[in-house]
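Probable alcohol dehydrogenase AdhA
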Amino acid sequence: MRAWETTGGAGRVDRIRLTRRGTPTPGIGELLVRVEVCGVCRTDLHVADGDLPVHRPAVVPGHEAVGTVVDAGADVSRFSPGDRVGVAWLRSTCGRCRWCRRGAENLCPEATFTGWDADGGYAELVTVPAAFAYRVPDALPSEQAAPLLCAGIIGYRSLVRSELPPGGRLGIYGFGASAHLTAQVALAQSAEVHVMTRGSGARRLALSLGAASAGGADAPPPVPLDSAIIFAPAGELVPHALEAVERGGTVVLAGIHLSDVPRLDYQRHLFHEKRLTSVTANTRADGDELFRLAAALSVRADVTTYPFEAADRALTDLAAGDVTGVAVLSVG
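Predicted structure tokens:
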């Protein structure tokens, strides 16, 4: 099969390379999936560029894969060949630790991740534990389902953790894949959304989706905010967001990687019970709920499709800020 693998070429166009590999064999409890499409996530870029050092040399990136089950290992009863499934970032957890037992499996110290610990969806075939695969609804096109598997799930978890009050004012910093999906969910739930982002195309997309305002990345919003989510991997935005939220407001850091946060002033940024919190991966329950909401609320990704052979160009465009909405690889 053909697959893209990381090279350690951080920040260059050769950060990944196209290779040929043998067909993977599904282990006990695993599915073998023929990939149809795979979303291109900023986390893939962080892995390829070394911001998140790879857990396996020459790992295949990609954790927003949708495809068809073609084979299964022993002890699989949940799926059958021909079923369409989604392969997401969270690949496995121990199921025994105190975090798993209390429903916070995203914090499991033994968790493994697709496209980081194990080969992912920038390939014609991928394996996934059946317990961590998602059944994709028939009515949802594959190119729409793929971005939900990470960008959508992380955005949804960030929105929940923002504790936005009903009808509240939500600030969104950065407006890429995850943010434009999250905005749609928030708007459908009657939030007033204000977007701060550097790209003019992203600002136009935000306004077209119904945002009340869209300004520069470090510009103050036109009104005080109840909550804010920072999707951009830019720590310098944290003080701006904390100043923008009102008393008792929450600022959520949605990224797996963030540049250094500048020194905060307690009185200006944190006093009056303002909260600063992060998001770590997701639980399977988050994904199940997001798939249900996406269908009910008609959430639609703004998709730019790249041929499988152009995965390196997709990452380069993403790094340059030249992707509006989400990028998706057409694999098979």
